[in-house]
Specification:
Strand order of the largest sheet: 1-2-5-4-3
Helix content: 40-55%
Distance between the termini: 23 Å
Strand content: 5-15%
Radius of gyration: 18 Å
Number of strands: 9
Shape: globular
Largest sheet: 5 strands, mixed
Length: 245
């Protein structure tokens, strides 16, 4: 089984490396791992899990052909019902989750214009956003966030291997619900920092970056839609709780 898992994993990674102009990128835990492995303490490196990919509508058929060619089996019923925005494939007990055009779990985030800004993975700001938008953030998600914040510089433009905090702040300034979830999770990271990483200097480095990001969020002017939704606040649910397929 392990040989089969390595075979299809390696083929997908080879495809990402050799076809950088194709609209297919990693997201999820493996994308985080790719950016942080060898640069953070071992406690912040999680074991490999399911594979998450992102593509756009016009590449859907190409991605399906790729996955089927290397031996993965599609979830026929799920793909028929949800194939416009999401596909599921399996190899033994491993799952490949393909998001199309938008990342949609607790909040909808359109990433079509972001896909070619980073090689192999989505841009780091978007990787951060896909985790911060999770309402029920668990420990493995917090580990991914802390690891990325520890190694990635904060910048104000789209740059490879860096987190564009101006982009993040603008995304949150348009959507009160996304802002509410993400800022709650930033505070959760602050509260849990001592349980996630032991080194005090590394803790301080991550906390300083969270503070810088929070300041950028606070100072970015909010949209009219954001201000209108903020009046209602948490009296009305502002997120979705996705069911596991």
């Amino acid at each position: 089984m392990k040989q089969l898992e390595n075979r299809w994993d390696d083929q997908i990674m080879d495809y990402l490396v050799t076809n950088p102009h194709m609209s297919l990128r990693l997201l999820g835990g493996r994308a985080f791992r790719l950016h942080v492995v060898g640069r953070v303490p071992d406690v912040l490196i999680r074991p490999l899990g399911d594979l998450d990919l992102f593509t756009i509508s016009k590449e859907r058929k190409v991605v399906q052909e790729l996955l089927e060619t290397i031996g993965l089996k599609g979830d026929r019923e799920f793909n028929l019902l949800n194939g416009k925005t999401r596909l599921l494939y399996y190899a033994n007990h491993e799952k490949v989750d393909v998001f199309i055009d938008e990342f949609s779990l607790c909040h909808r985030i359109d990433l079509r214009e972001r896909i070619h800004l980073e090689a192999q993975t989505l841009p780091l700001a978007d990787l951060l956003l896909t985790k911060l938008q999770i309402v029920e953030l668990n420990r493995k998600d917090m580990i991914d966030l802390v690891a990325l914040l520890l190694v990635a510089p904060l910048v104000e433009t789209d740059q490879p291997s860096a987190i564009n905090i101006r982009y993040l702040a603008k995304m949150l300034a348009k959507d009160w619900g996304l802002w509410r979830t993400c800022t709650k999770n930033l505070q959760l990271l602050v509260n849990e920092m001592c349980t996630l990483i032991a080194d005090e200097m590394q803790q301080s480095k991550v906390l300083e970056k969270i503070n810088t990001l929070q300041q950028a969020i606070d100072l970015t002017p909010k949209s009219a839609a954001w201000r209108m939704r903020s009046v209602v606040g948490e009296r009305v649910r502002w997120y979705e709780l996705p069911e596991e397929p």
